[in-house]
Amino acid sequence: MGFYRQDPALEAWLEAAVGRICQERGGWGGAISVTCLISDGDPQGGAVSAWRGASLAGDRCRYPASVIKLFYLAATEAWLAQDLLIDGQELRRALADMIRDSGNDATSYVVDLLTGTRSGPELPPEAFHRWSEQRLVVNRWFEALGWPEWQGCNACQKTWAEGPYGRERQSYGAALENRNRLTTAMTSRLLQAVMAGEWVSPQASTRMRDLLARSLDPAERQADPENQVDGFLGQGLPTGSRLWSKAGWMSQARHDAAFCEVPGLPPFLLVAFGEGAGPATDESWLPGLCRALVDSLKAPVSA
Q1: pLDDT by residue (tens digit) across 129-157?
Q2: What is the pTM (predicted TM-score) of this model?
Q3: CB under 8 Å to 160, separation ≥6 — which residues?
Q4: Domain ranges of the chain
Q5: Which of 91-100's residues contact partners 24+ apart within 8 Å by CB, and which partners?
């Protein structure tokens, strides 16, 4: 990967750690992708030399569930910088609900603003073609960055509680071939840029980081059953840590993208996608992976 330097020891550790997770659960057969980056320099400076990392199936496209909302947030900041959107209280409320609470209604509103499209009944072929082309503007933006990690990814669909209807279902394709798709590598690269203050501008990156910040306070987590910490990577962090993250989950997926600061350890970025009923319903594998990484950083990383 071009946005960090390869670390063979970390790669061996990652392969062994994921192998243990799968073995303990009877084998998940290629269901997991992970990209891990460790900052050996200033994470606010995005130089490749400041990051070492490893990836396991990091270029495999998977349905991202609500992790896609991180990309819609990033696109919104890019649109605002180009005066393609008008900033205001209602937009900021929607972005906060989309990221902090993973709200699907808020996401629908944001996607409408980004693309100039609207949900509605099915469309005849010509009108549907025009609508579909307009829906691709977020894809075209990321493609224009020239990041090789974007290859195969797709960010053109809303997120749903019950599922798409009308032209939205039409857009998915008969075999759902046009669903959203992301890789852990691409998600890591975007989150790295945000945490380094390099996405759009330092001010835009700061706004994004503020929305991605998660409380690790037990009382606050207990008060919010969908806190995006418990059952995800953040649950594996020790007391005193700090977390910025965006999780995604549904009946066939459990994902998380997290940047973590642990006292006495270098900051690290961990993105893990688990696909299928096994990873989706197992609330222990993501915290376990994060806990194992923390433990490994307290000693030399080895397999």
Answers
A1: 999 999 999 999 999 999 999 999 999 99
A2: 0.95
A3: 104
A4: 61-182+190-211
A5: 95/211, 96/211, 98/69, 98/72, 98/73, 99/69, 99/70, 99/73, 99/211, 99/212, 99/246, 100/211
